[in-house]
Design goal:
single chain, seven-stranded mixed beta sheet, alpha/beta, four-stranded mixed beta sheet, 2 domains, Aspartate Aminotransferase, domain 2, 409 residues, 15 helices
């Protein structure tokens, strides 16, 4: 049956994305990762780029664990033992020993009673928030939360929804007061830990304090949930993320295995009762295959490395690279948002100039992500740089030299 009229409508939507400048079009295809050489960190070769090496400054692999020999060995060994895939959802026959061991390791790492893994952190947020939303539940969200939280809120359809200005604790207090006045029985305050576009972080200590202050107003508590996918493994002296940096512990913590830990998958940690409930109620867990047993084994090895002297040394190196890059941007007269997280935004505040700088950098062999209007509001245009422990001081200086040329600094 032809569907030419549907295709015509789809083409119109794609044309609209072209007009707005938001269409992603072709994705760069990595065909090889080149190992470090001399003073230079790893480089990648891209399809169609005639063997020209590129330095990636837009990768979430903050510790370089995807290429760690012990992580690779753990994945290869588990593949030989368990096969390439789980073959089923968890409750039928898809639970393997590496899945159970990983969940135990995650719970211990985060000082929680239990953990539960998902196919991705996006699936984790989608699978955790909606089951926790009951009748007369209010959900309160930071305005810059990730798309997965926004999508989960839409799916959950809470009785009340409030969005407070970014990091504005007064705004959060006003939302909590409104939830009291609206007669809600349960409140879930949900936030990113580290905000992926800016590299700043939620004030979890203040959020938890506000939640406890208002808790007695609600029959089923004020629950604090955080997605710290960019924080775990990249933020804090031991890589325990925004909780470590702020000295707070949230009720429900979601994170990823696919960024700093270098593998694939997502997870949630919390009380044993919470995890027992989610295993029975979370559709994204019940009806979807887990990560492979091999990925689970590799992720466990990544956590072991992170939670060791080697991991702490890598984190210290990463913080040093981040400081050097931020100081270099400021010395060039460029604007950034200071912080210890390895997401370092260069605030350009002009769409055309943002695109031009990104193009100049790519011509010079550096890949970075430009965020221009209408992806971000006018005046908030930026280039998001992401440091990795795989980078070297020479890499950072090379990028700064290229930026000096590209920006006229």
């Amino acid at each position: 049956m032809p569907f030419d009229r549907l295709e015509q409508a789809l083409r119109a939507e794609l044309d609209e994305l072209d007009e707005l400048g938001t269409r992603k079009r072709d994705e760069p295809v990595i065909v090889q990762v080149l190992p470090p050489e001399g003073k230079r960190g790893p480089r990648v070769l891209l399809q169609g780029e005639d063997q020209r090496p590129f330095l990636r400054m837009n990768c979430n692999g903050y510790l370089g664990l995807a290429s760690h020999p012990e992580v690779i060995a753990a994945e290869e060994s588990a593949t030989k033992r368990y096969g390439a895939g789980p073959g089923s959802v968890r409750f039928i026959s898809g639970t393997f020993f590496p899945h159970v061991r990983l969940e135990q390791r995650l719970a211990t790492f985060h000082s929680r009673e239990a953990a539960m893994i998902f196919s991705s952190a996006y699936a984790a947020v989608m699978g955790v928030l909606p089951p926790l939303v009951g009748e007369d539940t209010a959900v309160i969200s930071d305005e810059l939360n990730h798309n997965c939280i926004i999508s989960a809120m839409r799916m959950a359809q809470p009785a009340r929804k409030y969005v407070y200005p970014h990091l504005d604790m007064r705004g959060l207090a006003v939302a909590l007061e409104s939830a009291v006045g609206d007669g809600c029985r349960r409140v879930i305050v949900v936030t990113d830990g580290v905000f992926s576009m800016r590299g700043d972080h939620a004030l979890l200590n203040e959020i938890v304090e506000l939640a406890r202050r208002f808790d007695h107003h609600f029959d089923e508590n004020v629950v604090v949930m955080a997605d710290d996918s960019h924080g775990i493994g990249a933020f804090g002296q031991t890589g325990r993320g925004t909780e470590e940096v702020t000295g707070a512990q949230v009720d429900v913590l979601v994170a990823t295995l696919g960024k700093a830990l270098g593998v694939n998958g997502g997870y949630v940690v919390g009380s044993q009762l919470l995890i027992d409930f989610l295993r029975e109620k979370s559709a994204f867990y019940i009806y979807s295959n887990p990560t492979t047993p091999a990925e689970a084994a590799a992720a466990t090895k990544s956590i072991d490395i992170l939670d060791s002297d080697e991991g702490r040394a890598d984190l210290a190196h990463l913080r040093g690279l981040t400081r050097r890059f931020e100081e270099g941007l400021r010395s060039l007269g460029l604007e950034t948002i200071a912080g210890e997280h390895p997401i370092v935004p260069l605030l350009v505040r002009d769409s055309k100039r943002t695109r031009k700088i990104v193009e100049r950098m790519r011509e010079a062999g550096v890949i970075a992500t430009g965020l221009a209007y209408p992806v971000v509001p006018r005046g908030e245009e930026e280039i998001r740089f992401q440091l990795s422990a795989e980078h070297t001081l020479a890499d950072v200086d090379e990028v700064l030299d290229i930026l000096a040329d590209a920006t006229g600094g």
